Amino acid sequence: VKLLVSLFNGYPIGSLLLMENNDNYEYRLIDGVPDGQTVPAAETLLVLDGQQRLTACYRAFVGSISAPRYPGRYYFMYGEFVKRMRGGEDLDGSNIEDFFLFIKAGRAMGEINTTADEISKGLFPLDIIFGEPRGSNYSDWLSRYNFNMSRGDQAEYQAYAKIAARFQ
């Protein structure tokens, strides 16, 4: 969570040390990549420093339920973020950590497995930032959340859209 907070705040998270493989070294994929995915050895970059950070980012932003040892899904408690923003709080880097939530795989797959479930609970899944794992990307998710919360009121929709723009 601390790494995710740093990323969301735009803080530096350290450098990576990479080396071209040139087909000389054995390698393994980042932990969490689904079985069966391969990359020709000559086209790989080996991670000499930064493996834990890359693995954490991969699991948070790309990880899949079908991956081996899938631990769970990371969420941003967007509903709470909106509530506090609408209440006039000035949310900045010092208190953004309060909005990150990790939910174990079994619960995520059972209780929060669709975009509608996520929206109704106000939980923005981090794995939609770079993809559409459940048929929705981040922009679509935010639009649907705004639409649901505004209940057809144009002024309310605009208020939610302003918060979504700040979040983005």
Question: Describe it for me?
Answer:
The strands form two sheets. The protein has a three-stranded antiparallel beta sheet. It contains seven helices and five strands, in the order αββαβαβααβαα. The mean pLDDT is 87. Helices cover 41% and strands 12% of the residues. It has 168 residues and is α+β, with helices and mostly antiparallel strands. The radius of gyration is 18 Å and the shape is elongated.
Strand order of the biggest β-sheet: 4-3-5
Q: How many β-strands, per DSSP?
A: 5
Measured distance between first and last alpha carbons: 19 Å
Radius of gyration: 18 Å
Shape: elongated
> How are helices and strands ordered from N to C?
HEEHEHEHHEHH
Strand proportion, as a percent range, falls in 5-15%
Mean pLDDT: 87
* Unreliable stretches: none
The main sheet comes to: 3 strands, antiparallel
Helicity, as a percent range: 40-55%
Helix/strand-derived category reads alpha+beta
* Number of helices in the DSSP assignment: 7
In short:
The chain has 168 residues and is of the alpha+beta class.
Write a concise keyword list for the protein shown above:
alpha+beta; single chain; 5 strands; 7 helices; two-stranded antiparallel ribbon; 168 residues; elongated; three-stranded antiparallel β-sheet
How are the SSEs placed, and which strands pair?
Blueprint: H1 2-9, E1 17-20, E2 45-49, H2 51-61, E3 72-76, H3 78-86, E4 100-104, H4 105-111, H5 115-121, E5 124-125, H6 138-150, H7 154-167
Antiparallel strand pairs: 1-2, 3-4, 3-5
Helix pairs in contact: 6-7
